[in-house]
Amino acid sequence: MSEIISLINEKGGVGKSTSAITISQILAISGYNILLIDLDPQMNTTKMFSNVDNIKDVNYEQIFCSRMEDKESVLEYISTTDYNNISILSASRELNTLIYKIYDKSKEKNIELCLRNNLSLLKDEYDYIIIDNSPFKSYLTTCAICASDKIITPIGVDNFSYDGLMSLLDTIEELNTKYSLSIEFAGIFMTRVAGRTTLFKQMFESYENMFEDKFLPVSIRNSISVSESNTTFEPLLTYDKRCTAAQDYIELVNYLGLMDNKHFRELAKYLKGEK
Ligand SMILES: Nc1ncnc2c1ncn2[C@@H]1O[C@H](COP(=O)(O)OP(=O)(O)OP(=O)(O)O)[C@@H](O)[C@H]1O
Ligand SMILES: [Mg+2]
Questions:
Q1: What confidence tier does 86 reach under pLDDT thresholds 50, 70, 90?
Q2: Which end of the chain is more exposed for a tag (fewer CB within 10 A), N or C?
Q3: Residue nearest (by alpha carbon) to ligand 1 atom 13
Q4: How far apart are CA 56 and CA 80, in angstroms?
Q5: Is residue 100 a part of any domain in this protein?
Q6: pLDDT band, very low/low/confident/very high, at 160 (cuts 50, 70, 90)
Q7: Total structural domains in the chain?
Q8: Domain ranges, residue 138
Q9: CATH code of the domain containing 263
Q10: Bigger pLDDT: 18 vs 156
């Protein structure tokens, strides 16, 4: 049974795509089978795997607006990548128009649960399904929230929207009540942290006070390797598995309890260069 995790924050540039890709890569290296879903028409996550010639066209309208019957019809849209254990449901510019189509259709019938239904057909195919969301708040994100078991939110040290986060927490509660779901808000973590500066310490403390146990004690340090790996279109651990940000993401994956000991041993072998 796969677990579906969404990265969401309506602030742009806080590290959603970097986190989705890096968490996926860490889990994949450890031996978990991962489906990465890119729901952002900017296609940043898809571009990371754009060396793949056979990226399949996706009929988003079918996936978001209809209840599909069998897993084969969903698998038709999923591309394998050059990276072991990582498959991708790619994004395209078409997602921009889909947002309006979903909105129109939602007036006629309730389609918020279609994506959930369709991804549930894949529950035995993948260990984790990781969804990278757009910063633009739309019905696409609502569908992704409904489909998710857990939501995690990266935030910047100085790029923070309290209202946006509160409205995300309210939306999760509303959808849980409306559809009797148990979507869990698994927490907020800081990204692009430039060392233990006074600003960092102040922000860390105020986030802790605001969000209590929902504020995760693991922060991702700023690392030049992250921007370089984006430029060379290589996932972070391929580019530099020893950089500070990679270490922090591994700690985050552990903190979130996503990896058991057996898989952690596989990751350790990779980090030591034994595989
Ligand atoms: N830990 C880090 N260290 C250095 N740079 C980082 C780090 N995390 C992210 N970045 C850089 O910040 C920029 C934004 O990151 P990313 O694309 O992951 O954010 P995002 O939340 O997905 O953005 P958007 O809202 O536009 O989708 C990128 O250029 C990325 O290289
Ligand atoms: Mg992004």
A1: very high
A2: N
A3: 13
A4: 9
A5: yes
A6: low
A7: 1
A8: 3-270
A9: 3.40.50.300
A10: 18
Instruction: Give the ligand at the shortest distance from the Cα of 9.
Output: 1
Residue 107 included in any domain: yes
Ligand 1 pocket test target in 7, 17, 46, 240 with most atoms within 8 Å of CB: 17
Reference 133, options 52, 255, 12; nearest CA is 12
Q: Provide the pairing of β-strand 86-89 with 79-80.
A: antiparallel
4 - beta bridge partners? 129
Asked whether 186 and 152 are in contact (CB, 8 A), the reply is yes
Cα of 15 vs centre of ligand 1, distance in Å, is 4
Name the pLDDT band for 204 (thresholds 50, 70, 90): confident
pLDDT digit string (tens) for 111-142? 999 999 999 999 999 999 999 999 998 889 99
In angstroms, what is the span from residue 221 Cα to ligand 1's centroid?
12
Evaluate whether residue 275 is within a structural domain.
no
Q: What is the mean pLDDT of residues 27-34?
A: 98
Pocket of ligand 1 from Cβ distances under 6 Å: 12-18, 40, 42, 44, 135, 191-192, 220, 222-223, 226-227, 230, 245
For residue 214, the 8-state DSSP code is: G
Residue nearest to atom 14 of ligand 1 (CA): 13
Give the pLDDT of residue 105. 83
Question: Is 141 within the bounds of a domain?
Answer: yes
